[in-house]
């Protein structure tokens, strides 16, 4: 479906993180909360709502956001009909047994090993997200909310800090966040020549999605909204739309073993070669971009900074067989663009991929293994044993069609794109068990392909949960006694 430019987003009722990633607010922290008294929980929300940042503003100093797990919404006494109308995946949660299989949360990623959000951890009811311009402002806002936690008997299950790395890189040393979908109505920025405009209903409830339909949204009986806060449900004036201007938020804490990553790359370099150069080349093949961010499709032989921010490219005509960017590379698996081999044409492939896009809003955490973040320094650094990684955060309008599909069919699936034993080289689950092998990476080359085997687990899930990210009116409803 094409974006209808006549659609107006109700940005006064949308939490701002949906629309912008806050590049001007580099300091952030995430607070996982547990309620212990219903009256106190609602009172805390009532006091906090005035701070919540709306999408209609672009803050220069601070932004505050709130989201809730299904257990949290139950605790806040939402009507049963509303609770039952949320997506099944949200109600069951990220750690439901079948879902762990779907997401690849097995072996090193098993929820039983998680530090939060798993079956052996305290329950999480809410997520408080703080973004600020500097460290002192962040500490002041944190202190304010910690005081409120004490007054309202709210337990901080865990505080997740963030750290901004140089040159917008992630811990393996590669520029991150280059590829984001263009969403109609979010900004005045013009899309690239090959960039499609996605309708806002792919990420924000209450608006039409790719199929020209309103996404499933939690409903509420009219009599339950005594103060008439909520809008009517699209095409059904008999019920209220609790989900309007909200979204589903996926949160996964991914640790990164940077020392192990570069150790493996160096070990795979051919004998008598320039080991570090070959190590960077192989790592870039796995990522699909060079450390600068330049895509291999545009710079197949060496890094080229002129393409560092380049995202306007495709694969079908430029690199159908993966001789430039391997078919199993991370960026090609998580966003195949126009190169799904299950489709007959590049147009069909592109349209299929557009149905499964996600909107990322993650941040890195932990200090870098090498302060410079240069690949040579990273691969020569000693293992310091410190924890570092990525707080993966994304928004979707449909958990199963967007996030879970990507995770299962493209990231986890070891036969993606005609491969055989290859899970995603960066975030896939790598193992050999019961005849199943998922720890191989294949590089198409002429005359013969090259296969790298016995890949260690470079990342591991440390915690995660599904949250609902309500609109401002729904937040206000939740705070009412």
UniProtKB/TrEMBL annotation:
Name the cofactor(s) required for activity, per the record: heme b
Q: Which domain of life is it from?
A: Bacteria
Q: Which InterPro entries match?
A: Dimeric_a/b-barrel, Dyp_peroxidase
Keywords attached to this Swiss-Prot or TrEMBL record, sorted alphabetically, are: Iron, Metal-binding, Oxidoreductase, Peroxidase
Q: Name one GO molecular function term.
A: peroxidase activity
Q: By what name is this protein known? A: Peroxidase
Annotated source species: Echinicola arenosa
* Lineage, broadest ranks: Bacteria, Pseudomonadati, Bacteroidota, Cytophagia, Cytophagales
